[in-house]
Design brief:
Blueprint: E1 4-13, E2 16-26, E3 31-36, H1 42-50, E4 57-62, E5 75-78, H2 90-99, H3 109-125, H4 141-154, E6 159-163, H5 171-187, E7 191-195, H6 199-205, E8 208-214, E9 227-234, H7 242-248, H8 250-255
Parallel strand pairs: 3-7, 3-8, 5-6, 6-7
Antiparallel strand pairs: 1-2, 1-4, 8-9
Helix pairs in contact: 2-3, 2-4
The structure holds adenosine-5'-triphosphate (ATP).
Residues 13, 18, 36, 38-44 line the site of adenosine-5'-triphosphate.
Length: 263
């Protein structure tokens, strides 16, 4: 059964089509990787899923509801650049993730103590309990990104949107983040959408890999047409070897170096 349903979605900026006629059905708990050439509209599609923007045409619904007009707590997002608060300790970064969206400002007194206890549980889970009192600047890139994911998860979103979350990390840290994300997935029934430039990463982590590309191309007006989903690969059990896909869709090879094949 479809949990996230995308029907005939188009998005234009100043009359310029970016994505066109996107249709998609995603079941609850699925992990969907999104790949495609640079600038083809992957982040735009993620912003539409987040309800940060409303599509020019078409509708996106979650669990059969009405289309959302703004991001809510059921959708969490993590960007490539860690968006943690530098002036707050690691623990209070997690507290902030809970307190700010409620619109009551910062927790005080007993409420703050309870929120800090809940934050400690999250930090335990994401392996940052030992640095709870540190400031983010003292953490490695991977740890800061784990904190950003912890913040997003603390709101218990039903949908987690990841925009190149590991793009800025070195290969070793990337691998440990893959394990971390796989573990978190096993513990929750979250539906995940992840934009990546790394096809190997997309196939390793995803149940499905969607490819965004243009199906129509006007050499005189390269911006005349938008991109859509051109492939929807089953990536469970790593699907078909992704190297073959690179032969089929050379534009993906240009979009980023593939990671080593999943074992
Ligand atoms: N708010 C906006 N207003 C105008 N144009 C925009 C806006 N957001 C994105 N665009 C344009 O839409 C196109 C697609 O951008 P988008 O960031 O979605 O692509 P992408 O596939 O995520 O790219 P990359 O892989 O390089 O991150 C780009 O040409 C971009 O300049």
């Amino acid at each position: 059964m479809s949990f996230v349903t995308v029907r005939d979605v188009f998005q234009e900026y100043d009359g310029r089509p970016i994505i066109e006629r996107v249709n998609l059905d995603v079941a609850e708990g699925e992990f969907v990787s999104i790949v495609g050439a640079s600038g083809c509209g992957k982040s735009t599609f993620l912003r539409l899923l987040l309800a940060d923007e409303t599509p020019t045409r078409g509708r996106i619904t979650v669990d059969g509801g009405t289309p959302a007009r703004e991001p809510g707590r059921e959708r969490g997002v993590v960007f490539q650049k860690y968006s943690v608060f530098p002036h707050m300790t690691v623990r209070d970064n997690i507290v902030a993730a809970e307190s700010f969206p409620k619109g009551f400002g910062w927790f005080r007194g007993a409420k703050l103590r309870e929120a800090r206890a809940r934050a400690d549980e999250v930090l335990e889970r994401i392996g940052l309990a030992h640095v709870a009192k540190n400031y983010p600047s003292t953490l490695s890139g991977g740890m800061q990104q784990r904190l950003a994911i912890g913040q997003a998860l603390h709101a218990r979103p039903r949908i987690l949107l990841l925009d190149e979350p590991f793009g800025a990390l070195d290969p070793g840290t990337r691998l440990s983040m893959h394990e971390f994300l796989t573990q978190l997935r096993a513990e929750t029934s979250m539906t995940v959408f992840m934009v990546t430039h790394d096809l190997g990463e997309g196939f390793k982590l995803g149940d499905r890999v969607l490819v965004f590309d243009k199906t129509r191309w006007d050499p005189d007006y390269p911006e005349r047409y938008g991109a859509t989903i051109t492939y929807d690969f089953d990536a469970r059990d790593h699907g078909i070897p992704y190297q073959h896909i690179l032969d089929k869709i050379p534009s993906l090879a240009a979009a980023g170096e593939p990671a080593p094949a999943p074992d």
